[in-house]
User: Fold this.
Amino acid sequence: MKKGVPTQSAVIDHQNGSQMSYKNKCEKCGTMSSSINTLSVPGPRQMYTNNFPCMKCGNQQRVEIIGE
Assistant:
């Protein structure tokens, strides 16, 4: 079974088979978004990336989730 592991600016909310959901987390101020993002779990050694601005401090973040 594939597994996604956050390496930067994300907290896994739920993972079920090939689907996973996560919340954005600011690395600067620690604020976690209330919205949930859903995606397919990346394959082994593949990386999912996304960018978002922190709602609280405005810092531009890069989300990274790698497949295992």
